[in-house]
Design goal:
α1 crosses α2 and α3 packs across α4. The strands form two sheets. The protein has a three-stranded mixed beta sheet with strand order 4-3-5, with no helix packed on it. It has a two-stranded antiparallel ribbon with strand order 1-2. About 45% of the residues lie in helices and about 15% in strands. By secondary structure, the protein is of the alpha+beta class. The chain binds zinc ion (2 copies).
């Protein structure tokens, strides 16, 4: 994972290169995205942003997220019921651990998924452009609360 400050500056300069308007809201959103390791949803980001900027709308959050997605700077994790969670810290495919009770999502630090994708690609002559691996279960906190 990139250091939050480095990642923040990285995202800022990439958006500036594209001549994007850097409103205080957008800057604050980038800071949230760069520092977060909790894979927030758009509405979660919106709730956090709203405490600082009362005029912010959910549409503004989505606009920035879809811009980052176009640039390949955010990983979108779609789930059933239309929930989408975002990882702007590691914008490339990587395995996740998903808690089925509190819906916490954490990165799983293993190279297995990439290896499997490479293997499948080699064996079947398939050109892999993306892959996804989620492990579902109970996080340590949820196991303790029974
Ligand atoms: Zn949990
Ligand atoms: Zn992640």
């Amino acid at each position: 994972m990139a250091d939050p400050q480095t990642r923040f500056e990285d995202l800022m300069s990439k958006l500036r290169e594209r001549q994007c308007r850097m409103t205080p809201q957008r800057v604050a959103l980038l800071r949230l995205l760069a520092s977060g390791t909790d894979h927030p949803s758009a509405s979660h980001l919106y709730d956090q942003l709203k405490t600082q900027f009362h005029t912010t709308s959910l549409a503004t959050v989505y606009k920035t997220l879809s811009l980052l997605d176009d640039m390949g700077e955010v990983l979108e994790l779609g789930f059933s019921h239309g929930v989408v969670r975002y990882d702007a810290n590691k914008p490339y495919p990587h395995p996740h651990l998903v808690c089925i009770r509190c819906h916490k999502i954490v990165d799983c630090e293993c190279r297995t998924a990439a290896c499997l994708a490479e293997q499948a690609a080699k064996q079947l002559g398939f050109q892999v452009v993306s892959h996804r691996l989620d492990f579902y279960g109970l996080c340590a906190d949820c196991q303790n609360t029974g």
